[in-house]
Amino acid sequence: MSEKKTRILIIDDDPEIVSYLTDIFQDAGYETLSAGNGVEGIEVAQTRKPDLITLDMDMPGRGGTLFYVKMRQEPYLAEIPVVVISGVGPRPPALNKSVPVIQKPITPEVVLETVKKMLAK
């Protein structure tokens, strides 16, 4: 029987970033899911139950802040660790202080190290 892979949901409206993060995570042995916006992100999170979510804050439609607030209101999603990977400046006030924020452009080592730390909590 194979071991269940850790599942990471990537929420970003930029297909190049999604592809880049997918490559980084899959090369490191993670299973990946993706969503192009916050609405799709909530749907994927509810149906696929990821172990961790990477979240872009600056997206059209339901952006990262609205996704995060909605996610924290859902009992079965509220405990999923989130890592913000975004080009936006200061930390949005809605984010819990424990949520790490990685500024774009990103380096794979920083992303993987941050994800490992969050999954270990």
Give a brief rundown of this model.
This protein is an alpha/beta fold.
Using brief descriptors, characterize the structure shown:
alpha/beta; globular; 121 residues; 4 helices; 5 strands; Rossmann fold; single chain
What's the SSE blueprint?
Layout: E1 7-11, H1 15-27, E2 31-35, H2 38-48, E3 52-55, H3 64-73, E4 82-86, E5 101-103, H4 108-120
Parallel strand pairs: 1-2, 1-3, 3-4, 4-5
Helix pairs in contact: 2-3
Organism: Alkalidesulfovibrio alkalitolerans DSM 16529
Domain Response regulatory: 7-119
Protein name: Response regulator receiver protein
Describe this structure in words.
It is built from four helices and five strands. With 121 residues, it is an alpha/beta fold. It has one domain (7-120): Rossmann fold, CATH 3.40.50. The chain has a five-stranded parallel beta sheet, with helices on both faces.
Shape: globular
Number of helices: 4
What is the residue-mean pLDDT, rounded to a whole number? 91
Proportion of residues in helical segments: 25-40%
Strand content: 15-25%
Report the CATH C-level class. Alpha Beta
Across the major sheet, the strand order is 2-1-3-4-5
Distance between the termini: 26 Å
The CATH homology group name: Response regulator
